[in-house]
Write a structure and sequence with these properties.
By secondary structure, the chain is mainly α. It is built from seven helices and two strands. A two-stranded antiparallel ribbon has the order 1-2. Strand 1 and strand 2 form a beta hairpin. Helix 2 crosses helix 5 and helix 5 crosses helix 6. The radius of gyration is 18 Å and the shape is elongated.
Length: about 160
């Protein structure tokens, strides 16, 4: 799952770690210009949709799930609609576009991998791992995530259902 890129899992020397210059991400450089809050909404829609028998998701469901006000949810949904990630039917049902569904699944997959890594590699308690994964999933680079996956695979710790 490393996109054909060979990943070197060797430990760096102390000198290379000291000389590393962190790259500051360019805010707004995310795919579609989606901020952390937008990704949170997409992930919430996906989870509500999968959890309900009908698969129907409305703004009120998202407000209840996230504990946000209905006007805040309406504003966020309008932005996601403008970006072509969701459609809102006349009935109020929220439907993913193919691109929106793909993006939501990608966010949720990052969340699952991070939670797993924190819990089973770093042995962080479950509730803390879940909480931290929610924050990290929005800023982690694909490269770093690929390295985590490669590490888990090399250690024979990568569950098939995680990818």
């Amino acid at each position: 799952m490393t996109n054909g890129v060979k990943i070197d899992l060797e430990k760096p020397t102390p000198l290379t770690v000291l000389n590393a210059v962190p790259e500051v991400p360019n805010k707004g450089s995310k795919e579609h210009g989606i901020a952390e809050s937008g990704e949170t909404y997409l992930e919430a829609i996906l989870l509500i949709k999968e959890r309900t028998q009908s698969g129907l998701v409305r703004a009120v469901d998202i407000a209840n799930e996230l504990g946000f006000s209905k006007p805040s949810v309406s504003r966020a949904l309008s932005q996601l609609k403008e970006k072509g990630l969701i459609n809102i039917e006349m009935s109020g049902a929220i439907i993913f576009t193919p691109e929106g569904l793909s993006y939501a699944k990608k966010v949720f997959q990052r969340h699952r991998i991070l939670t797993y890594f924190l819990r089973y590699v770093l042995e962080v308690p479950a509730s803390q791992a879940e909480q931290d994964a929610c924050r990290i999933e929005h800023v982690i680079s694909d490269l770093t995530l690929d390295h985590m996956i490669a590490y888990l695979d090399k250690q024979k710790m990568l569950p098939e259902d995680l990818l």
